[in-house]
Amino acid sequence: MDPYKSVRQGITPQVAWCMFDWANSAFPTVIVTFVFGTYFATSVASNSVEGASLWGSALAISGVIVAILGPLMGSIADRMMRRKVWLAAFSMICIISTGCLWFVKPDPDWIIFGLILFVVANVAFEVGGVFYNSLLPGVTSRSNLGRLSGWGWGLGYAGGLFALLVSLVFFVQPPVPLFELSRQTAENVRAVGPFVAIWFGLFCLPLFLFLKESTHNRKRLSVTVMGEGLVALSNTIGGLHRKKNLSKFLAARLFYCDGLNTLFAFGGIYAAGTFGMELDEVLWFGIAMNVAAGLGALVFSAADDKFGSKLTVIIGLASIILIAGLLVLVSSVYLFWAFALILGVFVGPVQAASRTMMAHFAKPEQAAEMFGLFALSGKITSFLGPAVLAFVTLSFDSQRIGMATILIFLLVGLVILSRVKIPRP
After folding, report:
1. Which residues of 10-20 are buried (b: 16+ CB within 10 A; e: fewer)?
2. Of 190, 324, 332, which is closest to residue 262 (Cα–Cα)?
3. Using CA atoms, how far apart are residues 337 and 341, in angstroms rounded to an integer?
4. pTM for this structure?
5. Which of 6, 140, 161, 257 has the greatest number of C-beta atoms within 10 Å?
6. What is the pLDDT of residues 121-135, one digit of tens each?
7. Are 274 and 399 in contact (CB under 8 A)?
8. CB 301 within 8 A of CB 154
9. How far, in Å, CA of 391 to CA of 194, rounded?
10. How far is CA 253 from CA 140, 219, 296, 378, in A?
């Protein structure tokens, strides 16, 4: 009798694919946004303004690297038909780099080391996402792309939520943290690095065990394959002017994704610096935002397939712009909480439906290459949002004014997206 038979039967390829969202979402939630990013800005850097500027610079550098690597690696993976292998490789790099964040002590002497580790981990996370997203069209039918993408995002937010809860309950908040970690040297906060690494490594296993990738026309990595990938990518980019709707969509996402990434990357830092939230309060804020965004992704997942991914993104972006404008103006911490949670409800649907739109544009044999361009559109100007925010924050010595620059990126993306037509199946 096989004791694991029922487990294997319960984990379908669709469930395994969604579980990867659960696994890797701990990294952007705990490391990028709410715990390590806030710790770096407030404890490692000399002051919160300098910390926010340095963190923004690290995000900008990693964004440029992802913009270059993403499309190229995706095109090569399409030639090799080995997307899972590349996903495993970049996931491992992210896991190891994240675990090493444990060594970043609350002292300015550790700034460079911490930033290098974070850039490596963030690049590996984002490039890995190219291969993960490219598996979506082969996991389900076109009529269910929106549902599966939405469920993946929803499960990802749930994963981020539980990772934050564990961080709060066992490491950051207790007077005596787990394993009796020292609060004086911030061991209880630095421990989130190894914790997220273990979380990611453990929960990503179902995808590699239960999701089968086609072995048809598989090739080994070689100079020839790399050359073919580079030529194919060059042809695709050179021919974008003939694919006007795809070009418009990528341009639109270039702006609104930059705005959303900047919003979330600096959300915890903004809450701490402007409203005086302590680290544990920022964690609870992050948990609440994950609940709101996850519920939004789940609720809107069916609407994505029924009414269209474009309309879903437009409604979400318009709502985010309105609410984010109010968030910049409010001075009450209670109003900040209320508006932020409402905003969170619309973030999940925008992200999930954007992935669905790209899946509709992507041909199966070019899935990784197309999602490489998808990553490119989200990262090629990713330095711009954080750089503008950091420059304005330093110039006016105000995080509130700096955060207001995000609205411009979201609005430009919305205007361009309104002119995109989605290809019919």
Report:
1. ebebbbbbbbb
2. 324
3. 6
4. 0.80
5. 257
6. 999 999 999 889 888
7. yes
8. yes
9. 32
10. 24, 32, 19, 6
